[in-house]
Specification:
The structure holds two protein chains of two kinds. Chain A contains no helices and three strands. A three-stranded antiparallel beta sheet of chain A has the order 2-1-3, with no helix packed on it. Chain A is 0% helix and 15% strand. The chains are: A mainly beta, B alpha/beta. Chains A and B meet through loops of A and α8, β21 and α9 of B.
Chain lengths: 52, 397
């Protein structure tokens, strides 16, 4: 599974970790995140992420 | 088609990328006043804090631009723009012609007039050079005063505290983050900052910077004196509009753009902190990216994409705390019922605003799992009058 990086602030979404604080379970692929998911560090939307 | 972009920040670089994708045959030039490749401003705090090296703030190597045929001109200042002849003039007198131009000139720190502001040790954080200067000076001193308790001020305070300085935040309003928090919520945030070793003074207006050649402290309007060896102003930004103004473009707070991000001059567009849309200069990154993409689409095919304004994110992170502000979060008075619960030691705060039994607004500090539910409840306009007490105990929401 690919990691994705926020081009705004540098946060890296790691699918093995997920984003449990915001209801995203470990093992969730970036592509499967809900459309309204935002970068937990800076609030950027999903389309501001690039695949590493 | 030759596209010229003035500005190498997030708006300029995003537009360049969108331009080469939409028009691979086009020629894209970026002119940047700073000598650096595009860097990520939110990482400047980590750099000042000593958590990352300078190299880590950069995003893409020069090769990335070269591979895409984007021509970078760094450390080059544009001094004039002539929309009639479609030319810009560089500092060395050279003129460059364009077919379509993007003003992505960004903003600069606003520093209010204040006695004694000619001393050494006064800073404002905007650029990488600012960050380098702040970091170098911070290594020689042990105390700092941050003027402005908004988002950026608190991040700067935290960075300097992490670097080992004793930091005092001086806020004009009676409490921190007045646009996002109420007084009770701000108290919880202040306690969190104080637990991290920062000091906070609110309801304070700076009158003068004290010291001989170097900063030694500040005097407030009420006569109080706070000592500190450096002063950082975090009192807002102003759009960089000089070029546009001199060229006769319509300028207000920012360069005025229409729904296609075009300025009052044909073939000249603006995006990011330089641009004003329907009276708003957003001054934050996500709208800058949105505007840059739409401006680029219209530079390739005029009139093809519309901008309707951005909805700023409702959740922000500040000094390690997560603040969510929803709907009529700060509403009070007749017709509104306000429920609050503060857990100072846990660093959590909840505020719900009800109108006729429906939740119309909320503030949630460090309650990320509840923030999303609260947003859904506001959207659903669910009647909550029978369960109002449960909102605070938090069994369900």
């Amino acid at each position: 599974m690919d990691k994705w990086e926020c081009m705004v602030c540098g946060y890296v979404y790691d699918p093995t970790v997920g984003d449990p604080e915001h209801g995203v379970a470990p093992g969730t692929r970036f592509e499967d995140l809900p459309d309204d998911w935002v970068c937990p560090d800076c609030g950027a939307t999903k389309d501001m992420f690039e695949k590493l | 088609m030759r596209y010229v972009i003035i500005g190498n920040g997030v708006a300029g670089v995003t537009a360049a990328q969108a331009l080469v994708q939409a028009d691979p045959a086009g020629e894209v030039h970026i002119f940047g006043r700073e000598p650096y490749l595009y860097y990520r401003r939110p990482l400047l705090w980590e750099f000042i804090a000593g958590q990352i090296e300078q190299e880590a703030v950069f995003y893409r190597p020069a090769a990335w631009y070269a591979e895409r045929g984007i021509h970078l001109h760094l450390g080059v200042e544009v001094v004039a723009l002539d929309p009639a002849t479609r030319k810009i003039t560089l500092a060395d007198g050279l003129q460059v012609a364009y077919d379509r131009l993007l003003l992505a000139t960004g903003g600069r720190s606003f520093i209010p007039a204040c006695a004694g502001n000619d001393k050494e040790g006064i800073f404002a954080l905007r650029t990488l050079d600012d960050a380098r200067a702040i970091k170098a000076y911070a290594q020689k001193v042990s105390t700092a005063l941050i003027i402005g308790g908004g988002l950026l001020g608190l991040e700067t305070a935290r960075a300097l505290a992490t670097a080992g300085l004793t930091v005092t935040v001086v806020e004009f309003f009676p409490y921190l983050l007045p646009r996002q928090l109420d007084a009770e919520g701000a108290q919880v945030l202040q306690a969190l900052l104080e637990a991290q070793g920062m000091r906070v003074t609110t309801g304070a207006t700076i009158e003068a910077i004290l010291g001989n050649s170097h900063v030694e402290g500040i005097r407030l309007k009420d006569g109080r004196v706070l000592s500190g060896e450096m002063v950082l102003f975090s009192t807002g930004i102003r759009s960089e509009t000089g070029l546009a103004q001199a060229a006769g473009l319509q300028v207000n707070k920012g360069v005025v753009v229409d729904e296609h991000l075009q300025t009052s001059a044909e073939d000249v567009y603006a995006a990011g902190d330089a641009a004003e849309f329907r009276g708003i200069v957003y001054g934050i990154i996500p709208p800058a990216i949105e505007q840059a993409r739409i401006a680029a689409a219209n530079m390739v095919a005029p009139g093809s994409a519309r901008y309707a304004g951005s909805i700023p994110s409702t959740t922000l992170k500040v000094a390690g705390a997560e603040v969510t502000t929803l709907g009529q979060a700060l509403a009070e008075g007749e017709g509104y019922t306000v429920l609050r619960r503060a857990e100072i030691e846990a660093g959590r705060y909840r505020r719900f605003v009800l109108q006729e039994g429906r939740i119309v607004g909320a503030i949630l500090l460090n309650e990320p799992e509840r923030a999303k539910q609260a947003a859904q409840l506001i959207q659903k306009k669910a009647d909550f009058s029978a369960y109002a007490d449960q909102l605070l105990v938090g069994l369900s929401i």
